[in-house]
Give the backbone structure.
Amino acid sequence: AQLFNVAMQSKVQFNATFFNAAISACEKGGQWEKALLLFTSMTLKKVDFDTISCSAAISACEKSGQWEKALELVSIMAWSKVELHLVTFNAACSACAKGGKWEKAWQLFSVMATSQVEFDAITFNTAISACQTGGEWQEALHALDDMGQVMLKPNTVTFGATVSACKKQGKWE
């Protein structure tokens, strides 16, 4: 933190690589507030943010349960025409799932389905986990079915989350 404060007060020209590394360090250290401060500092320092900057800031929010902030960053990315990447969607969906906002996670999952971003197992696992949290067993089963349609193989996390979603609602069909 002290090194960053000294660097910010200097007359050094910063670039996206500097900010991306600093935001990622905050994310790994569980410092979502500092990650967002760095993210907003990019504009003040006239440095354009990119997919990496946004994804790292969203991941910091996800790890700290800040689903609203994660969604704000997704909106900023879309408004700024910054590419929404698989990691971005997965982190934002996970933030919503952890925050108990299965509807928001499912909306992101739907947006991702209409975009050019390819799904991975983590995407489906996150969506199914969000359904589990919200008690939406039918949606969890739909996601499991959709996973096969895009040629992805379910894993133990996928099946565990799906079974848990069904169990939570007493559905063992």
The mean pLDDT is 88. The two ends are 54 Å apart (CA to CA). The longest helix spans residues 121-134. The chain has ten helices and no strands.
